[in-house]
Amino acid sequence: MEPIVGKRILVTGVTGWVGGPVARQLAAAGNEVYGAARLRDPAQRQPLLDAGVTPVAIDFETSAFDDVPSELDLVLHFAVSKSNDFAVALRSTAEGVADLMDTAASRSDRLAAFLHCSSTAVYQPKGHEPLVETDPLGDSHRAMGMVTYSISKIAAEATVSQACRRLGVPTVIARLNVPYGDTYGWMLFHLMMMEHGMAIPVHEDQPNSYNPIHADDQVRALPYLLSVASTPATAINWCGPDVVSVEDWCAEFTDLTGLAATFQPTSAAIPSVVCDTTKLDATGFRCTVPWRDGLRRMVATSRPDLLRA
After folding, report:
1. What pLDDT digit, counting tens, does each position of 106-142 carry?
2. What is the b/e burial string over 268-285, where b = at least 16 CB atoms within 10 angstroms of the residue's CB?
3. Of 8, 60, 206, 254, which residue is most buried, by most CB within 10 angstroms?
4. What pTM value is reported for the model?
């Protein structure tokens, strides 16, 4: 599938792990990219400008969207509230995205698609059985302290679906599993814990398995995900093909660095979230960064001092 080139794109959440790399790579590919976040710190703007991304200040909690540009081709929504206050989280994550869709649609006659980045945190835990897009939804993150995350993400999927039908904007709800890159990710936190001899909390139903996907493949997946945008909205699992556990990637870190991992089984951890990739595979998308290669890149980029010969 052809990459996204020559489009006028709004990317939200550009100060986060996923939206930032997406915005920078799309700008480098020859798109006119607007990077949106609250941007309360002026220092956050210059790195965006240096990457060819035009900063746009928005606020989902207050629906402050005055600076959203007109005549957009695509909106890629990655912003999310991290508040444990339900009123704030639901207002920002669920109501705010519907207001953004209204704003973008009202200012563009050519808006071709809206991508809403959801999360596999919306699923009711199912042990080690792969989850399909029609499986029951539930709260998998409350036990480890993210009390609003799953519920606000589920609410956002509902508001996005309703706005999609009301506005007629083709929409895809991409349920992202474990994103990581050369300089960020859940795995990097675990590497730091290994370095300092800290026990890594894991759910007591071991192994703790997921489908990680590297930043390079997240960007490569975008045209495939957008190809299934529709009215009504389509939900799709967004992840890598390999089932990899926390225990697996920590063992790989041991091979790469010599550091040992210790684990602390607990019920206060995120249980396994294994994804069925049938729907994603049907788009023709294939990952290009195997997870072991991705972890080696992570260590070589972020902590080369730990990488043994």
Report:
1. 999 999 999 999 999 999 999 999 999 999 999 989 8
2. ebbbbbbbbbebbeebeb
3. 60
4. 0.96
